[in-house]
Each structure stands twice: as structure tokens, then as C-alpha cells.
Amino acid sequence: MDTISPDFARMFGQSVYIDTNVFIYFLDRSPTFLPVVAPFLRAVMDGRIIGYTGVAVIAETMVKPYKIGDVAIIGKFKDFFYQKDFLTILPHDPAIFDLASQISAKNSMKLIDSLHLATAVQGGCNYLITHDGGFKPMGGVEIVLLRNLVADS
Q1: Can you say whether the dihedral through the CA atoms of 89, 90, 92, 97 is positive or negative?
Q2: Which of 126, 153, 150 is nearest to 139 (CA)?
Q3: Per-residue pLDDT tens over the stretch 105-136
Q4: How far apart are CA 135 and CA 144, in angstroms?
Q5: How does residue 43 score in pLDDT terms, banded at 50, 70 and 90?
Q6: Which of 86, 11, 20, 9 is nearest to 47 (CA)?
Q7: Which of 9, 50, 51, 131 is deepest in the core (most CB within 10 A)?
Q8: Which residues pair with 4 in a beta bridge?
Q9: Nearest of 1, 48, 5, 43 to residue 22 by alpha carbon
Q10: CATH (residue range 6-148)
Q11: Which residues form the PIN domain (predicted)?
């Protein structure tokens, strides 16, 4: 049986930047990751975790619905992101792009991942949750991998 891990519990009351893959696994109902991401996003919706994301995350998540051209899914995904009292959606201004470039250059990270990390840093987030292993902690932002959110009991 799986239980909530200490990594999950310590995010309660904290600001957490949510990477694209968390939303994709939830919205696509991934059988592997839904048992992890659904309780996490429920905690965000309930206000136990203060959720942040960036405009680029929404753009990345919207690629598949636009590619298949399903107007209903496009609307559903947009409604999900912009529902009241759910997420703070952070912009990516020139200073964030500059910081992202520096992070990418110094840490050999993909620019899009560096953009997410820079946005989390500038947004004052305590954590960044992702499934991507290439992130490096920076500026007070701790990286939490999805696989660490469930503890075997």
C-alpha cells in the first residue's frame, strides 16, 4: 500500500512551482502517475499547498489538445488552468529569460527547464515539482521528483 511521503507532507503551506509533466499526467489520466499527481493537485486545490506555474507550462500542456484539434479538450484544459483560487500563473519577463539562459549555460540544462527554474526562483517558490531528473536546486528552490512523493509502506 502506498502512503504520503514526507516529501509530500513538507510541501504543505509552501509555495510550489509545478512543472508541465505533472499537469500532463493528471489531464491525460496517466495510469502510472495519476495516483501521485491527483492527491498533490487536490492539496493545491484545497489550499494546503500554494501552487504556482508559468505561462510556458500552460503552452507546453496545450500542444497536444491543439495538435488533435479537439475543441472540447482545449476548453477543458484552459478551464482547468484558469479556475478560481487554484494556481498563480507567473509570466516570463526578459529578466527571467536572462536568468534562464545563465542557468542553462552553467548547469547544462535544457532552456525550457531553466526557464521553469528561473521562474520558480523569481516567484519566490520553495519547491519545484517535476518528473524530469535534469533540474538542479537553485536560489532556495528545492527540486522534488514525482517518484519521491509516494512512500512504500
Answers
A1: negative
A2: 126
A3: 999 999 999 999 999 999 999 999 999 988 98
A4: 9
A5: very high
A6: 86
A7: 51
A8: 150
A9: 43
A10: 3.40.50.1010
A11: 16-136
State which amino acid sits at residue 44: V
Mean pLDDT of the chain: 92
Distance CA(119)–CA(54), nearest Å, equals: 7
d(CA 109, CA 117): 10
Q: In whole angstroms, what is the distance from residue 34 CA to residue 114 CA?
A: 25
CA proximity to 23, closest of 9, 33, 15? 33
User: How many residues in total does the chain contain?
Assistant: 153
Map grid coordinates 536572462 to a residue. 98
**Residue whose grid cell is 486545490:** 45
Report domain extents, the chain: 6-148
Residue 13 contacts by C-beta under 8 Å, 6 or more apart in sequence? 48, 49, 50
Q: Which three cell numbers stand for residue 24?
A: 500532463
CB proximity list for 58: less than 8 A, separation 6 or greater: 81, 89
Q: Which three cell numbers stand for residue 65?
A: 489538445
Q: Which residue, 139, 137, 149, 151, is CA-closest to 49?
A: 149
In the numeric block, which cell numbers belong to residue 89? 500563473
